[in-house]
Design a protein that fits this description.
Helix content: 40-55%
Largest sheet: 8 strands, mixed
Strand order of the largest sheet: 18-25-24-19-23-20-21-22
Radius of gyration: 37 Å
Oligomer: single chain
Number of strands: 36
Number of helices: 41
Structural class: alpha/beta
Strand content: 5-15%
């Protein structure tokens, strides 16, 4: 009817449509009156479109006739405001849930705006995109003949000149045919970021994309559905720029985290005993990290105190502070454990560590403990609700937008938050079969398999054959699946190994710069206005300043009306574990309880994300509990409404016979779908609404109002877990065990709303300042007749992405404080932002980086397969037993100046020599090796090709010379063995370094000797044997004294009871000289004899 029909025919058809509209309304009135439906009064109040109005908007009548509804006066008022805002500004409106925002107003508005001159974009959230597509298709593609367009976009799309022209043609076609484009925020912002990226890179397609952006600014008219969520300050989309680089201070960056979590597990039982009501600990399998959640700040503060004690006493492997003076130790303790640190303590810590390799670890510990990152992830983030794994796109943990619903592209903006949550995700979820197999393969191919495997099996219940790595057979699928997987998949040491070897080296990367957009870009001022609507207005204080909240005349009491519905007597009670005399309520117990109520509950709105089971599992369990229900309705993992019938079949809700029989079904809406979902529940439906930590008034009301007749026959009751119930009672000044009323829940939700607004103010300010700078450059680029100023565009849009550990965690000095406050200073210079801060009484704006989440799109990199150029094959040196070695066996006379013998540590790097006094070697003069043992290939004297140490030849000590130990090659032993057997001057000893804990030690050199040793024979000095063990690669010490002596010899810090220890540097080594006596067996360090 838009064109192609004679005017007379248009009037005839319009008149017919008006008559049909009156007829349908009369039939509905009769039916509503007969069934005493609550829809009767609203239908009476509805006024059918008159012929005069129908001639102006004929499609309004067609849509009403085809969809069998009558436009109500309120809807008519809102519709006109949506199309022609009286404020003449970008505006969002509030309309009560159930008043037809999405089902009535949106289709009529977009049909009116799509006048073949305007590109109409209906912007919706991803979870609601499919539902909105089906709704518009049902409303507009019939009698109206409108076409619905959908154009998803991301950075991964190859946008060359041809593709750009195709997009332009498709958008122009949408305009020409009066179509409606369904868009998502990320698609619109990604297209803009691509344009900026191409311009900055001076790509040839940049100007073409910019022209398309100009056209969009002139022609597009946007309507935002659920505008409060779309324009929330927590949302931003970024493009990473530059070459990906590893995180600073890797791998200590993540191994320190793993070691801190090991210390945490030591204290969990004590922490639970001290705070039984504020700590949730669920023990998993042996060797695993327990599931942990802190419910209050007090346990977090205590845990930080205990962890600081552990770290200062040397229980953290990556760094030790025991060698510092007491004053320096106290400064380090305050620096690590306290948020506020004075400049004097900062100066002391910087003096001790800034020039050392452990400065990064010190800063990292401060971030975990002093700045509260560890307590934050354990208290504010819930696994599978706020974060978890999505291995389809990332090895790291990613934000979840709802329970078990990973965000499509979002990543955590803070690198260490991402690392902490990644560790917890793998600890809780465990390794799957392929991951465990990869871990074992890496283990068996490592250089230190036995020692590493020993750490894996600590605390595990294993059969005897698996106590050693030799019992592992990865070719046996039965052993892998039935034995290894159940025992190792949640073992913390195994997971730490996998994370350090696979996940973090590959995924723990950052980019130097980024391009970013936010909700402010969606609300920017353009030639055509933007309008939006939502059922709540709690987010009005966090709207971009370019978008205003406007109350429709007569609808100022919308929020209060919903609250009055909730306070009616049929709502409630609030179920909590203590009301059921339980400490914990499982899903099965909860469903069984509500099914046994006098009025059974068959609807569950999990807005509090208390149900961690998969949606289909919830549906199946509920059908087993409620024997009267014939089917279960739920959302599947593709955001489609599905129906599970009693025979186990699953069918789409839109085609199911239960679509109009919800009274026979149980219905479960997870927290991702408690907003915007529109199902027609029976008039007497009663729903259970869960409460959770992040439930605000907005989210609570949105969930409850899925019952469109709430307050008119439909009702709700609530479930609060123990910690939420305690908070509700505390906010209401009630005691434990007191009844929780609906008014108490509303008070609690409003307080959480205030906290949420205050929490997101820093994000709002930072995004507003950033948008203000970017928008100036973006507007200049669009309005420039010539190529845009790329320098100005780059300066405004490119932002640093990677931050150093000092930038993240070093306490603010005067200089860093000035830098950090620059954003706040800029905010005060923007009148609109300053006015909003004044309205809210905000004086200080904090750091927004800790809980920052970013929708991130990474450029597709060309895969490169690196080919290693290996060294040419080496030629083995022919064995040779030199005469001096034969003479030694026969006579026992050792000639240290002979070419046939080399000092054992002859290849020690020169860097070590710098620590020594000139002309003095710390290494024992009693340890030697033959040239045949030491040099294995031709023309190469390096130590890359070394033989294992297995054969030692010892001489007899005399008054003028000590016992010398010479390492022989196997060839020399084979040739000289007959002569050694007859010799009375030397002895041949079998030796092997101890590389496994259970391995027998050979360091006393008495295991097997040829010829047998005399009774008067004594082993060499301890320091000589220690150096031999060090050279041969021994991993275990015979006792603590041997360990202490070797540490002192190497200049490493060690505790000496009853004596003052040597002065140590912050890296644990002594900077003083090592002195040895003439015999090489006694050494002194700072006058300390060992």
């Amino acid at each position: 009817m838009r064109k192609g029909y004679p005017l007379q025919w248009q009037h005839v058809l319009t008149s017919l449509a008006c008559e049909l509209l009156h007829l349908q309304r009369a039939r509905r009135l009769l039916e509503f009156q007969r069934s005493q439906s609550p829809h009767y009064i609203p239908e009476v109040d509805a006024i059918p479109t008159s012929f005069v109005d129908a001639k102006k908007n004929p499609e309004w009548v067609l849509i009403q006739v085809e969809s069998h509804f009558t436009l109500r006066p309120l809807q008519h008022t809102v519709l006109n405001e949506m199309i022609y805002p009286s404020s003449s500004q970008n505006t969002v409106f509030q309309l009560n849930m159930g008043e037809g925002k999405s089902s009535v107003i949106a289709p009529l508005a977009v049909a009116t705006m799509a006048d073949q001159r305007t590109l109409v974009r209906l912007v919706v959230l991803k979870p609601l995109a499919r539902q909105m597509f089906h709704l518009l298709a049902a409303r507009l593609t019939g009698l109206c003949g409108r076409r619905i367009f959908y154009l998803p976009f991301s950075r991964s799309i190859d946008m060359g000149p041809t593709q750009i022209e195709n997009v332009r043609s498709l958008l122009q076609e949408c305009v020409d045919v009066g179509g409606i484009l369904i868009g998502q925020p990320e698609h619109i912002l990604s297209f803009r970021l691509l344009t900026v990226e191409r311009l900055i890179k001076n790509d040839r397609t940049g100007p073409t994309l910019l022209e398309l952006q100009k056209w969009l600014s002139q022609c597009s008219r946007d309507i935002l559905d659920e505008s409060d969520e779309i324009l929330h300050s927590k949302y931003q989309l970024i493009y990473t720029m530059g070459k990906q680089q590893p995180l600073e201070d890797h791998p200590d960056r993540w191994t320190t985290i793993q070691q801190v979590f090991s210390l945490v597990s030591r204290h969990l039982k004590r922490l639970k005993d001290r705070f039984p009501m504020d700590v949730e600990v669920l023990d998993n399998e042996p060797g695993s990290f327990p599931s942990l959640r802190l419910l209050k700040p007090a346990p977090g503060a205590t845990l930080v105190e205990w962890l600081t004690d552990d770290i200062m006493t040397g229980r953290l492997e990556n760094i030790h502070f025991g060698f510092l003076e007491s004053k320096d130790q106290e400064a380090v303790r305050k620096f690590v454990a306290c948020f506020d640190v004075d400049n004097e303590n900062v100066a002391i810590v910087k003096r001790c560590f800034e020039s050392s390799g452990k400065w990064g670890s010190v800063l990292l510990l401060r971030g975990f403990l002093g700045q509260g990152l560890l307590a934050y992830v354990l208290m504010k983030r819930r696994w599978r609700v706020d974060y978890g794994l999505d291995l389809k796109r990332s090895l790291l943990a990613v934000p979840y937008r709802a329970k078990d619903v990973p965000s499509l592209n979002a990543e955590f903006g803070h690198p260490d938050i991402a690392l902490l949550l990644t560790c917890l995700s793998y600890y809780y979820q465990g390794l799957n079969k392929d991951q465990l197999l990869a871990a074992f393969q890496l283990l068996l191919n490592s250089d230190n398999t036995a020692a590493e495997y020993e750490t894996w099996i600590v605390g595990l219940d294993l059969p005897a054959e698996l106590r050693q790595e030799t019992g592992i057979n990865l070719e046996d699928p039965t052993q892998l699946t039935e034995i290894l997987l159940p025992r190792f998949h949640q073992a913390k040491r195994v997971i730490d190994f996998y994370l350090s070897a696979v996940v973090f080296p590959k995924a723990a990367k950052e980019f130097p710069t980024k391009l970013s957009t936010s909700a402010w870009d969606l609300a920017e001022k353009s030639e055509k206005l933007k309008t939006g609507f939502s059922g709540t207005n709690d987010n009005r204080y966090l709207l971009p300043t370019t978008m205003q909240q406007q109350d429709i005349p007569g609808q100022e009491s919308t929020s209060a009306r919903v609250l009055s519905y909730l306070q009616q007597p049929e709502n409630g009670p609030c179920i909590s574990p203590d009301s059921l005399a339980l400490k914990y309520v499982s899903l099965q117990v909860l469903l069984s309880h509500v099914a046994s109520l006098p009025t059974p509950v068959r609807v569950l709105f999990d807005v509090g994300a208390q149900v961690l089971e998969v949606n289909q599992e919830v549906a199946k369990m509920w059908l087993e509990i409620d024997s009267q229900a014939q089917a279960a309705v739920y959302f599947d993992d593709k955001d489609e409404v599905s129906v599970l019938t009693r025979d186990g079949s699953v069918e789409p809700f839109i085609f199911s016979s239960f679509r109009n029989r919800l009274g026979e079904c149980v219905v479960y809406l997870d927290d991702a779908h408690t907003r915007g979902t529109d199902l027609k529940f029976p008039r007497q439906a009663r729903a259970l609404v869960t409460l959770g930590e992040k439930v605000t008034k907005d989210r609570l009301v949105q969930a409850c109002m899925r019952l469109r007749q709430l307050g008119h026959g439909q009702s709700v009751l609530f479930f609060a877990p123990l910690e939420i119930a305690r908070t509700i009672r505390a906010d209401a000044d009630k005691s434990d065990g007191d009844t929780i009323e609906v008014i108490d829940i509303l008070r609690w939700a409003m307080l959480r709303t205030c906290e949420d607004i205050e929490h997101h103010i820093p994000h709002w300010v930072h995004q507003g300042v950033d948008f203000h700078e970017r928008n100036l450059a973006w507007t200049a680029a669009k309005e420039s007749g010539s190529p845009p100023d790329l320098a100005q565009l780059s300066s405004a849009w490119l932002r640093p992405e990677a931050r150093t550990l000092e930038q993240l965690y070093l306490p603010h000095t005067a200089q860093t404080a000035q830098t950090s406050s620059s954003t706040v200073a800029k905010a005060h210079e923007i009148p609109e932002i300053q006015a909003r801060l004044d309205l809210l009484g905000i004086m200080n704006v904090g750091d927004a980086s800790v809980d920052e989440e970013q929708e991130r799109e990474v450029a597709q990199e060309v895969e490169q397969e690196r080919q290693l150029e290996r060294p040419p094959p080496s030629k083995a040196l022919h064995h040779k037993v030199r005469d001096e070695v034969r003479s030694l066996v026969r006579t026992g006379n050792f000639n240290s100046s002979s070419f046939a013998f080399l000092p054992l540590f002859d290849a020690v790097p020169l860097a070590v020599q710098k620590r020594l006094r000139q002309g003095v070697s710390p290494w024992s003069k009693e340890l030697w090796a033959t040239r045949d043992f030491n040099i294995t290939i031709k023309n190469n004297s390096s130590k890359e090709h070394m033989r294992p140490v297995n054969w030692l030849l010892s001489t007899r000590p005399t008054l003028t010379s000590p016992m010398n130990i010479i390492i022989l090659s196997p060839y020399e032993v084979q040739v000289l063995l007959p002569e050694i057997r007859k010799s009375t001057n030397v002895s041949l000893h079998i030796y092997s370094p101890r590389i496994r804990r259970e391995m027998q030690t050979f360091e006393d050199l008495k295991f097997f000797c040829i010829p047998s040793l005399e009774s008067t024979w004594s082993i060499p000095d301890t320091i000589v044997i220690s150096q031999l063990n060090l050279f041969s690669g021994q991993l275990y010490f015979a006792n603590y004294d041997v360990y202490r002596n070797l540490c002192a010899f190497l200049g490493m810090g060690v505790h000496f009871e009853g004596r003052a220890g040597p002065v140590m540097d912050t890296d644990g080594f002594s900077s003083t000289l090592i002195e040895m006596d003439d015999n090489g067996g006694l050494f002194r360090m700072n006058n300390l004899e060992i």
